[in-house]
Fold each of these.
Amino acid sequence: MTDPARRAFVVIPVYNEGPRVGALLREVAREIPLERVVVVDDGSRPAVDRSWLGGAHRLRHAINLGKGMALRTGCEHALARGATAVILMDGDGQHEPRDIPRLLQALAEVDIVFGARDLGWKVPWVRLLGNRAINAWTNTLFNLDLHDIWCGYRAFRAEAFPVLAWNASDYAADVEMAVRAGRARLRHTEVPIGAIYHDAYKGVTVLDGLRLLVQLAAWKLTL
Amino acid sequence: MLQLQIVSLLFALGMVYWTWSSYRRRTIRLGELVLWVAVWGGFSLAVLLPQSVAVFVQRLHVNRVMDLFMILGFMLVWVVLFLNHLELRRMQKRLQDLVRELALRQDDAR
C-alpha cells in the first residue's frame, strides 16, 4: 500500500476570515510545506490578501458558493497537482494544524480519517444537541459508527475522491462525505482532535440542522 | 358587464402586453409567446362568454365557471412553480460550474 503522506495536500476553504488565515497558515507550514496548501477564497469581501498566504495556492470563487463547493474546488486542484492524500480543515482556525501528522498516520491504514472533537459543554447546548441528533440519525441510517460527523477536519486518500465527491454546496458536504464513505464501505477510522472555538459553527443554524435531517433521509433513497 | 369581468379583461390585456414586450426584448421565444397569448386569450374568452366553457363545467362536474377558473388557475401556478424550480436549479448548477472553473484557472501561487 502506498504511503498517502508522501505528497499530502491541505485544502482550506475560507470565507470572510480576514487576517486569521495568515495566522493559521503559519501554523500549518510547520506540518506541511505551503506549496502543498490550497486556500479557496469562497467569495470573501474583501478578498483574501495574497500577502497573507506565503507560498500557498490561492483559488478564488468570484461569488460565495458555500463550503462544500469550495472544498471540491480545492480538492480538484490538489489532485490535479499530484496529491496522494488531501487533508481538509476549516479556515476559521478552529482546527489545530498540529493534529495533521496524527491524521496522516492513521490514513496509512484506511481510506479516510475523520477528526472527532470532544464537544463536551464547550458549545451552546442547542448545537451540542443538534450535533448529537445528526450523528445518531446518520449512524442509524447508514450503519456508521462515527461520533462527530459534522467535524470538517479529515483526511482521505486520493483514490477515495471519486467515491466521496459530494454535491452538497454548503456545510452538509461534511455529512455527505461521511455518508458516501459509508455507502462505498471505505475503510475509515476516527482520530480525536483538539478544537479551538472562535465563532464555532459559523453559518450553521438550527434550520440547517433540520434541513439536513430531511436531506439524510433523501440520501438514504438516492445515494 | 360585471365589474369583475372588466377587471379580469384588463388583467388579461395587461398580461398580453407584458408577454408581447418580453418577446420584443427577446426574453421569451416565439413558442412561449404563442403559448402565453393562447392562455390569456382563452382566459379572456371565458371571462367574456362564460357559457362557452359551460360544457367543461358540466363534464368535469364542477359547480360554477368560477370554480373551474380556480382549479385551472391552481394547476397552472403549480406547473409554473415547478418549471421555475427546474430552471433555477439549472442556472445554479451552471453558475457553480462557471465560478469553479474560473477559480481553478486562476491559481496565483508564487
Amino acid sequence: MTVHHFIEYLNAAIFFYAITVSLSYVVLAVLSARALHIYLRKNKFIDHNVTLTSPYAPSVSLIAPAYNEERTIVENIRSLLSIHYNAFEVIIVNDGSKDATMQTMIDAYNLEKVDFFVNAQIKCKTIKGVYKSTNKAYKKLVIVDKENGGKADALNAGINISQYDLITCIDVDCIIEQDAILKMVKPFMEEREHVIATGGVIRIANSCDIEDGRLLTARVPDSIIPRFQVIEYLRAFLLGRMAWSKLNGLLLISGALGFFDKKIVIACGGYNHNTVGEDMELVVRMRCYMSDHKRKYKVVYIPDPLCWTEAPGDTKILGRQRNRWMRGTMETLWMHKKLFFNPKYGLLGMLSYPFWMFFEWLAPIIEFLGLLYFIFLVIMGYSNWYFFLILFATVYFFAITISILSLVFEEYSYRQYNKHRDILKLVATLMLEPLIYHPRTVWWGLKGNFDKFKGKQAWGDMTRAGFQKKVIKS
Amino acid sequence: MLFRFRYLLLCFFVASAAMVFAQQSYVDEAAEMIESSLNSTEILIRVCTVLLILFTVFFIGFFITLMIARSTHRYDEQYEKNIKEKFELLLTGVIFNDDAEMQTDEWKASRKRVVKHFKKRYLHKRINKKYLREHIILLHKNFIGSAADVLRNLYIELKLDRQAIKELNSPDWGIQANAVKELAQLNITKATEKIKNRTQHENQILRLEAQVASIRLDKKDPFSFLDKNRNYLTEWHQVNLAHIIDQINRDLLPDFSRWFVSPNPTVVEFCIKMTLQYDQFASIPALSQLLYHKNQHVVGEAAKALGEFGVTEAQSDMLYVYRDAITPVKLQLLKAIGKCGNNEILPFLIQQLLQNDINIAMEAANSLKKLGEEGIAILEKQTLSNLYGVGDICKHVLDERI
Amino acid sequence: MARILIIEDEDLVRKALEFRLKKDGHQVTPCMDGRQGILTLETQTFDLIITDLMLPYNNGLEVVNRSKEIHKETPVIVLSNIGLEHVVMDAFNLGADDYMTKPFSPNELSVRVKRLIK
C-alpha cells in the first residue's frame, strides 16, 4: 500500500465519519423538535392532581443511597418526604458511611430497629439493620444500614427492601422537583405492560437559589465550567434523548433519577457492581432481557426538568467524572458486545449500540487521531491553510448552530432561565464551548480509554461542594 | 469486537510512527499525492464555503429567533399576569360573598357592575377572553357550593359558552378537547350530544375528555360509551374516569355489573373497581363468577373486590382458581383471602407460608395476621421455624412498627 | 373574632381563604410552606390552624404533629385535595380536628371554623 492510497482512504474515512456525525445530529434535532412539540401539546391536558388524589394510583418505592452525607442527610430526607405523591415509601440506604450519617438520621427521625425480613431477590452486601421512625408523621420512611459496597450495591439492597412494584432510584443529594414522581409514573399508567423504565431531565443547580433541598430560582452558573455543562446538558437532554426516546432507542437513564419496573430489574439481576457505569448498564441489560424474551417494551423519557444536581465546579473533578463516564460506557459496551449490529435486537442492535460505540466511545479517539493526522500533514509540508480555515469554520459554525438550536428548544418549552441576560450569557458560552471546553472533554475521554485499558476500576472521589454553602435565608 | 479494535489502534499508531520516521523516502511521493488531490480539495473548499454560509445564517437566525421569542414571551407573561390580577380582584369580590345573607341588593348591584365592566373593558379583545375563560375554569375547579354557581352564571352571562361550543367544530383535536373540558367543568349541557359523538374518537386525549364530559353532563345515560368501547382503557384513563365519577351524584351511578360481560377486559376491570368503590353489593354473585374469567387481570381485580366486600363464601372459588393463577394474581388472591376468609382457610395459608416462593409466603403470613387470633397464634409459633425465611417473615409481619 | 393561621402553598386557595375569613371578621396569618408554618406556630399562639397536606419543606402531617405537641387544645383543620381514607385517618390519628377536601365550599369552611372556635 502506498502512502498515496493510505492517505486517500484515511481522508475518505475521516470525511465520512464527520458527515455521519453531523447528519445524525441534524436528524436527532428534527425528531426531537417533533417529539417535544407533541409532548407539550398533550401535556396541557394532563392534570397530575388526579393521580395525586386517586386511590388507584400505583405505589412507588423511592430508593436513595447515602454515603458520608451527615451534613445534609436530614434536610435531604425531609425534602424527599415532602414529594407530592400519595402512595410511596422513602428508602434511604446508608452504604456503610464512615461518618455519623447513621446516627444523625437516628437522632433526627427517632429511628428504631425493626424485625424486617429482607427478601434477598438480588445480591447485595450484608444488611445490618432496617429502621423505622417511632413518629407516625414519618411513616413513609425506611432506613437501611448496610456494609459498604458502592452505589450499585446500595441500590440493590434498597430494591430488596422495597415493598412496591415501581421503584425510583435517585441520588440523595439531588434536588427532586416535587411533582417528579407524578410525572414519571404516568408513562407506566399509560402502558403498564410495556414501559420498563422512565428517565427525566437532569439540570445543573450550581449558582441556583436553593433552600433546604428545594430549588427556588434557576440561575445560569456564575463560573464558566458549570456553564459549559449547562449547554452540554441542554443539548444532550432536549436534543439527544428526546429523539432517542421517540425512536425507542434510549440507552441511558441517568443515575440521578430513574424510574423502573421492579419485576424486570429483579429478573435481570439488579444493578451490576462491576462497572462504574451501572446506570447505563442496567438499562441496556433490561432492554436485552426484554428482547431475549421477545416482549414488546419501551424506555420512556420525559423532557420536563425533574431533578437538579450540582455539577463539578472545577476541571479536576469534572475530569474525573468524565473519565468515569467514559469507562462506564466502555464497560457497558463491552459487556453487551453481542448487540453490535445484531439484527435480533432490532433498533437496539442496529442503531443505538453502534451509535454509542462510534459517537460516544470512539469519538474522542477519532478526534484525537484527526488532530494527529493534521499535525502529520503539516509535517509533510501540506500547507493549504485556506482550506483548513474554511473547514474549521464550517465545523465550528455547525457545532454552535446545533447548540443554539437546543437553546431555542428550551425557550420554546421550559424557559428555566428567564432573564434576557441569561440568554446572552448562554450564547456566549456556547460560542466558546467548541474552542475551550470541547478539547478538554476529548482529552478526558481519551484518558478514560487509557485508564480502562490499563485496568483502572475505582470510582474516583466525587467531592461535592455541597448545597449548604448556598443556603440563603428566607 | 473491542479487542480487535484495540489491536487495530495499536497497528495504526505503529504505522503512523513508522511513516513519520520513514518520511524522507516518501516525502516526494506524498508531495505528488497532495498535488494531485488539489483538485478534489478545490471542490471541498467550495462545498465547505456554501455550508459555512448556511450555518452562519442559521446561527444568526436562531439567535434572532431566541431574542424575539424571549421578548414576546416576557411581554405576554406580563400582560397575562396583569390581566389575571385584575380579573381576580373583580371575581373574588363577587364569588366569595356567597352567604345568602351577604347577597344583598348592594351585592347584586356590584355583580351587575362587574359584568358590565368586563363586557366594556376587556372582552372585545380575543386574548382577554381566553384568559378570562382560563381564570374562571381555574377558580371553578377549586371551589364548590355557591361560589362555583356564581362563577358558572357569570360565564354564561358573558356568553363565553357560545365560543366554546363553536370550538367543538374545530379541525384541531387540541382546541376541541379544550372546549369539551371547559364545558364539562362548568356543567354546560347545551352541546352534550355533540360531545358524546367524540367518546370513541381516535385521539386518545379528546376521547378521554369527551368521556369525562359525558359522565358529568349527560343525565340520561352517562356511561353509554362503555358499551361500545373497543379501546384499551389504560390505567391513566381509568384513574381519570374514576376521579370524575367521584364528583357526580351517587344516584346517577349505573349498576356497573352491566359491563361485566364486556369483551374488553379493561372495561371489566374498571367496572369491578367501581362496583367496589360504590358498594354495589347486589353485584357480588356476578363478581364471584368473574373469578373464572379468562383474563388474569380481571380475576385479580375480582378477587380484590370480593376480599374487600368480605364475601366469605367466595373463598372456596378462590382456592379453586388459585392453583392455575399467575403469581401476581396468586398474591392478590392471598390478600383477598386474608380479608374475607375464615378459619377453614388456615391450613391452606400455612401450606402457602411454608412453600418456597418468598413473595407468596410473605402474603400468606400477612393474610394469617389479618384473620385474627388463630392466625396470629400460628405466626407466633412459626417464628421459631427452621425453614429458610419463614421465621423471619413471621417476625416481620408481626412487627407493628413496619 | 379569632386568630387563624393558614398554611397553604397554592396562591389561589390561600388568598381565597384569607379573603373569606377576614370577611368573617377573623385575624388571619398566611404561610406559604410547612417550615414557615411551624416556625410561626412555635412563636405565636392561634385560636385555629388550617393546613394543607402537600406542602414544601415540612409536610402537613408534620405541621399537625408539631402543633398538637405545643398547643394540644388549638383546633386544626386539614384542607387537602386528597380524600383517601388512610390519608384522612393519618391526619386524625395525629390529632387533626377536622378534615376538608378540595375543591371546597368557602361557605362550609366558614361554618366549620365557627363551630371549632367555640
